[in-house]
Amino acid sequence: MEGKRIVILGAGESGIGAAMLAQKQGFDVFVSDFGAIADRYKQTLVDLNIAFEEKQHTEELILNAIEVIKSPGIPDTVAVIKTLKKKNIPVISEIEFAKRYTAAKTICITGSNGKTTTTMLTYHILKKAGLNVGLAGNIGHSFAAQVATEDFDWYVLEISSFMLDDMYAFKADIAILLNITPDHLDRYDYKMANYAASKMRITQNQTADDYFIYCADDEETIKALKNAKINAKRSPFSIRKKVEGGAYLEGNNIHININPIDPLTMSISELALQGKHNIYNSMASGIVAKVLEIRNVTIRESMGDIKNIEHRLEHVAKISGVDYINDSKATNVNSTWYALESVNPEVILIMGGVDKGNDYEMLKDLVKQKVKAIVCLGKNNKRIHEAFENDVEVIVNTFSAHEAVQVAYHLATKGNTVLLSPACASFDLFKNYEDRGNQFKMAVKEL
Q1: Which residues bind ATP (predicted)?
Q2: Are residues 64 and 102 in the same domain?
Q3: Are 380 and 399 in contact (CB under 8 A)?
């Protein structure tokens, strides 16, 4: 297949999926990972007879591609990406590539917080309603792998800003933007406007037949909307005010009025996912369900019986009257704000890790009100000490999940909550946030 060489950078879930699909479409495929490739992914490449390299990027094997598909984790500042761009070789995301080969419709969910929960809830509702639907993006099996091996009519995709940055022709049939809060600013020259512009790419290429669902209470979203040209039908959701053609909270009831002939009203006490942030997530998913004309009874049932996702405000145990909650997925300050907002006072907060230029200011009020001690879990905790030394009496440093849990256990008394909600990435002490969450759970079970 001379002239049809596709190179894939990064051999994680998305990279392997892209390789499978590219091979199926008849391309000459080469996979290159600067790190070591996990055994199970290596085995897939060997089984499919796809050429690969690891622990290096060999330029002569990469720069002869007609197109490069890169892992969302690789920033544009990496040497090989700079060289590719200089040579005008297109660099795209796995999501962009996969969409070319499927006629399925897509529901795409982005936002700094709540993406995974909203994606899972939307998928749960659609599946319960009997739709032929796949789940992909930042979650589950890669989109490209499913396009290569499955035949779904719909996909619910969790989309990060890093994915959006490498998407060009892709179009979401239904786009959801949950919120825009400071996160990953190190990838956006520490400029909020750049990050917001990246999130707004979720609306690109949408037409008047498509839907754009967004939070009318989110300041940064409203700011970004002023400069954006949105062709899709707008559908806002709010817990502060009544909105038309979307969802709003009145008293304890959510109202979804996409279809005035058949509106949906539901009490927030019926929601399986509790807390203010989950009212927003439920509204966004509910609007999608109503756009797809799913029956109210199915929507109600689905929202009432969904299980919370692992590592997101996951209740681990109650020991001697103390609740232990695993929120390891909170890798930014805003996620930790949500977690603190949804738990009762007298919290032992375990936080820390790789600080991505965090501004802890937004946590101060909640920490003063609810937190009695902070247990730092990370190699460098200096900025946490500086941020909260006047707000909390006890701040302790620990260097393993086991140690953090032991310290928290001794600090907690009956009625307290031990909350792992790090506000930071996990790569200093752990493989990833799942590893951090699992080690926390193991340490709690050993108490």
Answers
A1: 111-117
A2: no
A3: no
Its domain, for residue 74, covers: 5-92
Of 337, 342, 381, 392, nearest in space to 362 by CA = 337
Question: Considering its fold, how many domains does the chain have in total?
Answer: 3
115 is in an annotated binding site: yes
Burial state string for 296-305 with b = 16 or more CB within 10 A and e = fewer than 16: beebbbbbee
CA–CA distance from 445 to each of 114, 274, 399, 433, 440 (Å)? Answer: 27, 25, 19, 18, 9
Q: Is 111 labeled as ligand-binding?
A: yes
383 burial (CB, 10 Å; 0-12 / 13-18 / 19+) is: middle
Residue that has been written with the tokens 């512009």 in this structure = 197
**Residue 341 and residue 323: Cα distance in Å, rounded?**
16
Q: What is the pLDDT at residue 1?
A: 43
For residues 45 and 31, is the Cβ–Cβ distance under 8 A? yes
- Any binding-site annotation on 114? yes
Last residue of a domain, one of 62, 92, 122: 92
- Which ranges of the chain have pLDDT less than 70? 1-3, 182-190
